[in-house]
Amino acid sequence: MSKSNREDAPLTPIPVVSHERASRVALEADVRTVSQSPIVSALLEAVDAGLLVLNRERQILATNRAPLLESLRHERRAIGLRPGEFFSCPRAAKQGCGAGEHCLACGTFQAVTRSQSGRGTVEQECLLTTGDGVDGTALELNVRASQVEIDGKDYTVVSLRDISHEKRRQALERVFFHDILNTLSALSNWTHLLNHSSGERQDHARERVSRLVGQLEREIQLQRTLLDAEQGTLRPQRVAVAPATLLADLRGMFADAHATQQRTLTVEDRCPGAELVTDPVLLGRVLVNMVKNAFEATPAGGQVRLWSEREAGPNGDGVPEPGDAVAFRVHNPGEIAPAVAARVFQRSFTTKAGTGHGLGTYSMKLLGERYLGGKVSFTTSAEAGTVFSIRLPLPAAAGAGI
């Protein structure tokens, strides 16, 4: 008999849960019970979303053959694993699914534990990364957990629906309706001034119109770039470029008060004479997102710092050699909370209610690592603030692949 009344009340804090697993004997008994249930068999056959059936220890007893789960099933045996382990969540690999502090923010963990604590059907969204590094895949799932009683014992049925395309569409809409319309509004105002002024004021307005048109073009092109990047059709255009040139372009882009939001940007090139072989457009987009995020995390009147520097890297013997890479770093004085830091690079995750689209930090990682061959990371603390970095190998260190 199902006990899956839909929950409409606000969610309570996640209940205290045990991290113990069922014994082998108990697990095998649960698998037999579930496999012989006509109710479960009908559900697994009828539902096209991914379905997991869990025991009280949140271990998988059965799955269906939905496309979302098929590729994973071919790689590992699902029975006995917890959801994060089945999906190769890098956090679960380190501490175990449900055992780490970051798990408290996981939509699947929240839905399952709240449902098991007697709150009926619980529906959550889950941002999940399968795998690690540049080969990791970002998933956005709608998760529903319900309780079902079989032979007098409770089990949890979890449906997983991939809403990545839906979330991406929503994110792109927010970008166009927020960022694009803001740029168009500014462009309209400066065009009006251009048509009703003369002399120096007209020259200034003409310069601003030209800059805003370029900004509008970049915003639209960014969305196309992200789409191509996710589909694997993006082709970087690598050329030789000096870090100083990239920094000068960024300084000009954030030269006016509107762009810096009443914050100060200081720019410093600490590796004169260095030359990268990279795609300056893609790298520029990574750095623009880093600077924008830093401005948003800095109070009015505060300072954001952007600089480049040479960085050592290991040679063939693992011994550091000076100048193997160039790192671009962006500092702001704020600290990222641990719960947020664990999800910074997940697609669609944002802390900006109503205005954020969750593509900024995600695109840094996607473009910076998968397409530029660099390493994107950050450090954060109350004492030192937050520094986002992208490290790119110099040609001699990168080898023939650059």
Task: Based on the model shown, name its key terms.
single chain, 402 residues, alpha+beta, Beta-Lactamase, Heat Shock Protein 90, five-stranded antiparallel β-sheet, five-stranded mixed β-sheet, 14 helices, 12 strands, 42% helix, elongated, disordered N terminus
Largest β sheet strand count, sense and barrel closure: 5 strands, antiparallel
How would you sum up the global shape? Answer: elongated
CATH homolog superfamily of the largest domain: Histidine kinase-like ATPase, C-terminal domain
Strand order of the largest sheet: 2-1-5-4-3
Count of the separate structural domains: 3
- The end-to-end distance, rounded to whole angstroms, is 61 Å
| Fraction of helical residues | 40-55%
